[in-house]
Amino acid sequence: MAGILAWFWNERFWLPHNVTWADLKNTDEATFPQAEDLYLACPLAFCIFMIRLVFERFIARPCALGLKIQANGPQKAQPNAILEKVFTAITKHPDEKRLEGLSKQLDWDVRTIQRWFRQRRNQEKPSTLARFCESMWRFTFYLYIFTYGVRFLKKTTWLWNTRECWYNYPYQPLTVDIHYYYILELSFYLSLLFSQFTDIRRKDFLIMFLHHLATITLITFSYVNNMARVGTLVMCLHDAADVLMEVAKMANYAKCQRLCNLLFVMFAMVFVSSRLGVYPVWILNTTLFESWEIVGPYPSWWVFNLLLILLQFLHSFWSYLIVKIACRAISRGKVGKWNPLHVSKDDRSDIESSSDEDNGPPPAPVQKHYNSTTNGTNKAHGTNGYLSAGAPCPDEH
């Protein structure tokens, strides 16, 4: 184990030439980032998760009910032992052949069985109230941490001159503000990583899981080798768009159409300008070129910049999705009544719906059997979906 640790913490990988871990030990004169500092993030992540439960129960939920958001979830499917067994043990999306077999077995028409499966899938989805509470929690945290980051960074020298991120590197003392900023961000994303298994399950679960892993890796990586100054710039830049994304989702769930449209436009402008404009010109420029000139490259420098470049590719992909949704809505001539957070099934969907679905229970069984080629498989349209930038999208960072 000692050999593995020695290999992992190889100074020639993590630190510039002629710098050792002993040089970065804490002294009475200066404090530097230590890897063991990050252990504090684990219990703090659990505390954040517990705070979230309390917040959603006693703050977000009353706010949602005050906005007339219904607590009930999607309509439940009519109890049926045969269809329930197929749903739980075989498939949640039966093909035409299986639909025809079930139609003959139950003496139900194919259209009714399709509707039953759609309602049964929706039954496992959370209510709009749960979505609102989740978004309000994220909005509250992002607003707080973004406000904190702005207030802290405006007093620093490296916000106005990014070359200050590299002067006297890595002998840059760790301040209390930077330590608090890093530990809180890391704790929050650790809580998101594990709460994904209890949160609203969406189609991009794996993508968001990997996104949270990448964010945690970047935060940890930049802290350990004391690239904390540029790390604070990256975190603050990404939190800006996440605030608008979550509040736009809240407006969507509250059915405030015009406010939702306005907030989405603001979110799109901030996201695209910050991720495709400010990020490469401001962040990548200093990590790639200014650091090369002042410090010079070394192994962990290459890894850090590779992760930041991969993040830029994710920015480009998510920006493409945002612009695609906007163009699709404009081309359909629905700008006036457009809800930009109602994303199509191809992009992201939380609840399935169909033009043939009503508010009542499935029709009673009938003797007549419909031909599957006449009915076909109904198309589904996503409702109450939202973008993943952070958001990370950018999720999610």
From TrEMBL:
Residues 346-397 are annotated as: Disordered. It comes from the Eukaryota. Residues 369-381 have a biased composition (Polar residues). Pathway: Sphingolipid metabolism; Lipid metabolism; sphingolipid metabolism. Pfam families: Homeodomain, TRAM_LAG1_CLN8. Residues 83-127 form the Homeobox domain. This is Ceramide synthase 6.
